[in-house]
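just leaving the lab so this will be short. what follows is a protein written twice so to speak, once as letters and once as structure tokens for the fold. can you read through it and tell me how you think this chain folds. anything you notice is useful, everything is just below:
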Amino acid sequence: MRSAFCTLVLPDKVAAVPERWRQPFASSEAVHLRMSVQRREGTGPEMALRRAMHALGLRYRTHQLPLAWLRRRADVVFPKQRVAVFVDGCFWHGCPEHGRRQHGVNGWYWPEKIDRTRRRDRDTDQVLAANGWLVMRFWEHEVTAGGATGCAQLVRTAVRDRRCEATTNKSRPPGCGPAKGTVPEDRPFRPGP
């Protein structure tokens, strides 16, 4: 096993200096256990949103790579409509309302880690948008505070709009209405529920 210390040789002195990146991040064994079982997939907020979307009739893929060459998975993916949905944890992604500003333990590590995560999120959004994807991000508090249905409705609207944009007037799915620039049929367009 490797030591968590390196030997620093100074003139006339030898000192053992801890290397921060090798030290355990958890402040106690209980914290270590809690962090090691933290879920990446199927979290409570994500499951609440998925249940609400399924109840609205949406069918989707979970934990897929929207772009094969981009090693970042979206929580929910609608591949045909090119919609990627992310449910971001308030702590891990630096929520402006609920993210911590001060970290009592490992304060040298967490701000940089959360900043890297936020930069990666922005980069993911830019790359997906440049490749024709619509990225939808929800904070976990938006989903868990009884807002799963509202978030699911936003996703349904986006998916429906993207589906309608991709089709021609002859093969339009129900609820899309007439294509832009075409003459409407004899009955008025009524959007779906």
